[in-house]
Design goal:
single chain, 380 residues, alpha/beta, TIM Barrel, two-stranded antiparallel ribbon, 15 helices, globular, binds flavin mononucleotide
């Protein structure tokens, strides 16, 4: 029996190992934390409708994304501060993704940097680069060229972080003052002005982009020639525009409640996007997904794969590479068990007939999927 029989063991280990400010930074969200809570709450507001009397002795959990076969329909979301959780940072996650045969979307903010991550793995089809665009064209072009040369399978264009949001817990714990990225927008603008005045274009600090446009996206696509994933889509209008601008994969995300507060839960946004895309592009979704059952809800509602930020972060903090692998093993087991109990043997058999809106039985909370962890925290 593993040291971590359940996902809850991994989350609890992360909670015990991480300094409280880092635990809060990973776990919670922006301002009143409405979006982060709603992500979970809206998942908890979906019930399954299962079928019985079917042969479910052989269950196939595989799918494919951008022509790459995934062992389970899960990808690692971009986590910029991943090196806070494991010294190997994004390379640790990329190696696990390669070994387990899923994909890792490597954050442009992550250490050890995109080149070192690509050099550290053999199967480059397992890595996608998450581009946090900025306006200065030469720098963007250089970056896109570098990512292509490094062998990345695709580029994810991150659109939902035009402004760095106010993470009050990080401001209150003091973590924000230690992070260059958490400074106010005014200081960011001032820095951009200073950088421009000094003729600089390539400093990492200036990466946040308030001028992200469709033209920029088209330029990245045509320059790189790589498949493009647009992260941050939450509605039908933007999904349709994304299709018009040649986006290959739509990535439904509200940044895990770490960007705009008071947004919809992403599982609420998913049907609008699915209906607008009409099967012409694959869809990834993230925001609150931590369990196999969560993943299957998204697949039933039209997503091809689910991305995970917090669950990946907790598992990594719990036990590094072994924790992350264990998380995927447990997710795989949960997916097999739930598929069998739903009466399906292939992910493609799931559709909206298998889900229905319901009343949640939990309080809205980022940890609502983990009742034992919630109970232990309450007793502290
Ligand atoms: C600690 C942490 C750091 C993150 N850093 C980035 C980042 O650098 N770029 C990005 O596009 N998204 C980033 N995200 C957002 C995730 O990619 C993803 O959209 C979100 O975590 C999904 O919600 P979930 O955490 O509930 O799974 C980060 C999330 C967390 C938890």
């Amino acid at each position: 029996m593993s040291e971590f029989p359940t996902l809850q063991d991994l989350v609890w280990a992360a909670r015990q190992k991480l300094p409280s400010a880092v635990w809060e930074f990973v776990t919670f969200g922006t301002e009143s934390e409405t979006t982060v809570r709603r992500n979970r709450h809206s998942l908890d507001s979906v019930a399954f409708i299962n079928r019985v009397m079917r042969d479910v002795s052989e269950v196939d959990t595989t799918t494919s994304l951008l022509g790459v076969k995934l062992r389970i329909p899960v990808v690692f979301a971009p986590v910029g501060s991943i090196a806070l959780l494991d010294p190997g940072g994004a390379l640790t996650a990329a190696k696990v993704a390669e070994e387990f045969e899923i994909m890792h979307v490597v954050s442009g903010f992550a250490d050890p940097g995109y080149k070192a991550v690509a050099e550290g793995i053999k199967d480059k089809s397992r890595i996608v680069y998450a581009l946090h665009p900025r306006a200065e064209q030469p720098f963007l072009d250089d970056l896109v060229d570098g990512v292509k040369e490094a062998g990345y399978k695709a580029i994810t264009f991150v659109s939902e972080g035009a402004y760095y949001s106010r993470r009050e817990r990080d401001l209150m714990s003091g973590l924000a003052t230690k992070s260059k990225r958490s400074r106010t927008y005014a200081s960011y603008l001032q820095q951009m002005r200073d950088e421009r005045a000094a003729g600089k274009t390539a400093s990492k600090e200036g990466l946040l982009g308030t001028m992200i446009t469709w033209e920029m996206l088209e330029r990245v696509k045509s320059r790189s020639g790589l498949p493009l994933i647009l992260k941050g889509v939450t509605n039908a209008q933007d999904a349709r525009l994304a299709m018009e601008h040649g986006v290959d994969v739509i990535y439904v995300s509200n940044h895990g409640g770490r960007s705009l507060d008071h947004a919809r839960g992403t599982i609420q946004s998913l049907p609008d996007v699915v209906d607008a895309v009409k099967g012409k592009a694959d869809i990834i979704v993230d925001g609150g997904f931590v369990r196999g059952s969560d993943v299957l809800k998204a697949i039933a509602m039209g997503a091809k794969a689910v991305s995970m930020g917090r669950m990946q972060s907790w598992a990594l903090a719990a036990a590094g590479s072994a924790g992350l692998t264990r998380m995927l093993e447990i997710l795989e087991e949960e997916i097999i068990v739930s598929m069998g109990l739903l009466g399906v043997t292939k992910l493609s058999q799931l559709n909206r007939d298998y889900v229905t809106p319901t009343h949640p039985v939990t309080q809205p909370h980022p940890l609502s999927a983990f009742p034992v962890v919630m109970e232990r925290i309450a007793k502290e």
